[in-house]
Amino acid sequence: MLFRSNTPATNWYATSFNAAGWSTGLAGFGTADPNVTPNTTWNTLGYIYLRRTFNPGALAAQQISNLVFNVYHDENVVIYINGVLAGSASGYTTTYVSLTMTPQAQAAIIPNGTNVLAVSCYQTTGGQFIDVGINCVTTVVPPPPIYVPSWPQNGTGLTAQYCNSTNLSNLAFVRTDTNVNFNWSPSSPGPGLSSNHFSVIWTGKIMPLYSEGYTFHLTTSDGCRLWVNGQPLIDKWHDDANGTDADGSIALTGGQQYNVLIEYYNNTNPASALFEWDSASQTRQVVPQGVLFPAASPVLAPLANTTIIAGQTLLVTNSATDTNFPAQTFTWSLASAPTGASINSTNGLLTWRPAIAQSPSTNTVTVTVTDNGTPYLSATQSFSVTVLRPLTPTFASPGLAAGTFRSSINGSIGPDYSIYAATNLLGGWQLLLTTNPTTLPFLFTDTTSTNLPQRYYRVLLGP
What we know:
Helix content: under 10%
Strand content: over 45%
CATH architecture of the largest domain: Alpha-Beta Complex
């Protein structure tokens, strides 16, 4: 290392500075000290100036950003790299310390090239020593904590439909299988089936533990198919005596349930079926019972209680969702309802026009929706309908004009208004008009009242 203790030119730290005539010595510089041993004596008051070149090698940008100085200074020290201020510290140390390198100096470093390190140290009294090196700090990042999924694994398995054919028809029985891990041969899967020539449909939900890509495996003899979240992943629909492993992958979110559909048939080979999965966070394993859920019942949209006037028509639109795959169709029915209420079995529209005799009353309506899966799954819900009695109809401003009787009639919107007339109160009432007015009051006109000595009118509400 080049050094001198008398004052050099002002640009002594520049890369282009000519240091001819400077002395040469080994670092560090100073006097004997209990903590360090100098290689070159420096025992004068005031400054010492140091220069040297270095090649840092093939440093990456990340490595350069981790560079710091390793300094023992007594006393004040100023450091430059390639003419750029790289760091400084005042006072003294009693051991080597780490000193931050400025970003400007890090940017000035030339990888795989010649760089200039220039240092000045100022001594006033007492011991004196200066030594500067460059270190690359390695930050040890602890491994991330092992993630343990917190989702409740409370599944009970998949809905299984066993068919007495190889084409998923002729249903024999339905049950819930805790998982798909079977080696039936030479036994039968269940009642009504032989050890060969049968097929199975497994439906329900699957809940992954981690948010990442999953690979699903079906190992069967013979054919198999798999859909997850409606996406076809495996299609091996042919005889397979070797039980070949078929697989497919999909990205899933941990804790979320997805539709799963497995189809399998066995022809003449020893019957077996195995459903497995693996991901970056879990090794290959049989898909366990806790993450499998049977086919779900439809979910009805909530209905609010309602109030109507007798004679009005109640229309209630029912709706339901079914998350199973493939999509199901619904059939609607009424488990309980007042007389006259009906529901469209296809679209779920409930209709009821309560009669006057059904008021006042509070009625419970129970709606049932059933899907077309195997087995059929249904859901029910109830709501109440309060039927109010309509207002008693009234005549207002009756009068005659040119032999025609006119009167305003008021009441409630909804019921039918039937107007009768008679010439005495003992009988012979004649129906003149039945109407269902959309606005009230409405005007009634009787053109048949001409030349009658007296005429009586009454209004009856219906239905």
